[in-house]
Amino acid sequence: MKKPNFLIFMTDHQRGDMVFPGIAKMPNLERFYPKAVVFSHAYCPSPHCCPSRATFFSGLYPSEHGVWNNIDVPNALSRGLYEDVELFPRDLANAGYKLYFSGKWHVSAEKGPADYGFEMIDGKNGFGKDCRNVPDVSGWKYYDGISDNLRRLNRDDFIRTEAEIIRPGYPLYKQYGVNENPFRDYDTVESALTKIKEINSDEPFLMYVGATGPHDPYTPPQRFLDMYNIDEISLPESFSDAMEDKPAMYRRIRDRYAQLTEQEHRECIRHYLAFCSYEDYLFGKLLDAVEERGLAENTVIMYLSDHGDYAGAHGLWAKGLPCFKEAYSTSCVIGGGGIAKDPGRVSDAVVSLADFAPTILELAGVRCDRKFAGKSLTGLFRGEQSDDDFREYMFTQSNGNEQYGIQRSVFSRKYKYIFNGFDYDEFYDLEADPNETVNQINNPAYKEIIRDMCRRMWVFAKENRDDITNSYIMTALMPYGPGIIY
């Protein structure tokens, strides 16, 4: 039996609901739906590029692969994976697969895709020619180079213009705008299209195409912005959440975006939606190329994102420590290659980026004895496992997006508990409060549920080598310690 090919298109910052009709306009995904399964409850382990991408390639959580935040910033916790961590592409290469890589890597600053068996098609997407980029560790070289601009921002007569967020002493930040080739994503896809035309169809392959959009700042081409009417854009239901019952850091981040008027927030949503439509356009070019080469019947195609974006929820944008669903929700559409028994459906199964390494290896018929934090999705595709039974609880791990703070969460369809080592904890009744606006952490009615979720969190931590804390009085802050699992 011929081994399946794999085409993976991964965007950056694309919230999971953006792939559903009626939100962002995604005509190419819609024409792919009849061949695919759309996952409505897909999540990343950490709301950050590098730890999430490392989880995708390894099938492990940050506590086991070693990447906790972005690896190319001066104050990174780590520059790459633990030495003993293997990635699934190497397993495929050892099994005879040809591997091709174009675009954004952002897994390690010390090793690039070529170190794991990929042929580099295009690795110039802002992260070095081979996707490796160890920065100036001091961090000051950058500021020295823009000192004139920083002085300009400190002038007393400086007036903010549309989409700008003023940060005295920091570079000017503009939340949205227009760019005909944002983040070079068009070039990334063109490189992949050239390679698809050259591929030997007799050899199984995996092609990974890493886009950087719809990452902030939100700068789609104008023609995609024209697809949306600003008068039809509404703010999220949670937009006005003052977050007075939530960690102070959440409010501090929100204060940055409070400089924007409500109309500017709507414009930002418009630009974000347009950026998603642009990524869909690029994905469509890949679909066309696969079909034109006659590869569609034997190619598993995945449209994914590394993490989500608040996109105005709770008055926030981008992603960070505020542990709301929007930052953890990922786009997930998988199909083609005849893998789905019942294509064209929406699956409510709770799935994780950690599930893809074991899934791809099983679909490829490649045996692997390594332990994964995730599990294969193949039973869902084949109708051998129900959506409700696949996973009851999801866990997250974050040590902060460079603004460090230990945070872990566990959630089900009903409840969500968040341990904040840097502030007071959170608990949400998701059935009564799906937008996570009322923190019930001090409500005695939920005491036993919180205790049970703490226990589950400790069990997960033990299984995945997560040394969350120690027993010292100043650091042992979770309401129930690990002793409750014994």
Q: Helix tally?
A: 15
What does the main sheet amount to?
Answer: 8 strands, mixed
Q: pLDDT under 50 segments (min length 5)?
A: none
- Beta-strand percentage range: 15-25%
Shape: globular
Helical content stands at 25-40%
Mean pLDDT: 93
The helix/strand series, from N terminus to C terminus, equals EHEHHHEEHHEEHEHHHEHEEHHHEEEEH
How big is the Rg? 22 Å
Spatial strand arrangement across the major sheet = 4-3-7-1-8-9-2-10
What structural class results from the helix and strand content? Answer: alpha/beta
Distance between the termini: 48 Å
Number of strands: 14
Topology summary:
Layout: E1 5-11, H1 27-32, E2 36-43, H2 49-58, H3 62-65, H4 88-94, E3 98-103, E4 119-122, H5 140-145, H6 147-153, E5 164-165, E6 173-174, H7 185-198, E7 205-210, H8 222-225, H9 248-257, H10 262-292, E8 299-305, H11 325-328, E9 332-335, E10 345-352, H12 356-363, H13 378-381, H14 387-390, E11 394-398, E12 407-411, E13 415-420, E14 426-429, H15 447-463
Helix pairs in contact: 7-10
